[in-house]
Amino acid sequence: MSKDLIESVKKLREITGVGFKDCKSAIDETGGDIEKSIELLRKKGIAKASNKMNRTAAEGLCLLREENGEVSIIEINSETDFVAKNKDFISFCKEVSEINFKNKGELEKINKSHMKNNLTVEINLTDLIAKIGEKITIRRALFFDNKDGENSFYIHGAVENNIGKIIALIKTSKKSENNSEKKIAMHISAMSPLALDEEKLDKKIIDKEMEIIKAELLNSGKPADLVEKIAKGKINKFISDNTLINQVWIMDPKKKVSDILREDNIQIVDFIRYKVGEGV
């Protein structure tokens, strides 16, 4: 067995929790494609859906900057956690975070911007890679202005002020008396919703999930005439579990996020959640 095959099987086992034999079979059948292997195992009913089923995570940092009610966030990746703790790497990330705020999350402008040493971010990044000897990428960035609402955020796994492994940023119609928007940001950090509500959930995600659910039901021996009915119930649960306003409130399982919004008379305008390496 080749080293690449062993690594692929190991990676698939870590993500799915499925045994070696089934993982090897899936890897062989899909030509080594991890995402397709996960899908295949789920269709066969061997693996269950979980938040772990993202592609292998990279390391790095998420950084936030807030000024006058406006907030920017940026994710910068490294290959290892060792480099993510490197002083030169952290210093670079901090300065790029400031540049991100000034350029309102536009990556192209960020890369062309000059740093304190009068060299562009691109050139400094290349020099840092050469110095550290590891691939480093500025992956994504975003900016929330202070129009049409109030911004709040939560940082999980903070390593320094406004630097962490997960950042949840939320814009609400107004600030609540109970500081609920901060708590909702914490909820987003933990529960990782895919969208605000069903209307904003990508139809391709729903269709793919329905395809997997039906295949799993058929492979489990369920009669074809019952598959449609059971699948409908399962997809409704999937939508509920993955849309923010329909999720069970993390601080009180008897409530949903929508209940908290109603109690405090606030609406969610927008939200985003960055987790280091998620989906890489």
Structure, explained:
It is a single chain. By secondary structure, the chain is an alpha+beta fold. It has helices at 3-16, 20-30, 34-43, 81-84, 87-102, 107-112, 121-132, 180-191, 203-219, 224-242, 257-264; strands at residues 59-67, 70-78, 137-144, 150-156, 163-164, 166-172, 268-275. It is built from eleven helices and seven strands. Strand 1 (59-67) and strand 2 form a beta hairpin. Helix 2 packs across helix 3 and helix 3 (34-43) packs across helix 9 (203-219). Mean pLDDT is 92; it is low at 53-57. The strands form two sheets. A four-stranded antiparallel β-sheet has the order 3-2-1-5. Helix content is 46%, strand content 18%. The longest helix is centred in the C-terminal third of the chain and has 19 residues, at 224-242.
Determine the strand fraction and express it as a percent band. Answer: 15-25%
Strand/helix succession = HHHEEHHHHEEEEHHHHE
Largest beta sheet: strand ordering = 3-2-1-5
Measured on Cα atoms, how large is the radius of gyration? 21 Å
Largest sheet: 4 strands, antiparallel
Main structural class = alpha+beta
Residue share in helices? 40-55%
List keywords for this structure.
280 residues; 4-stranded antiparallel β-sheet; alpha+beta; 7 strands; 46% helix
Briefly summarize what is shown.
With 280 residues, the protein is of the alpha+beta class. Helix content is 46%, strand content 18%.
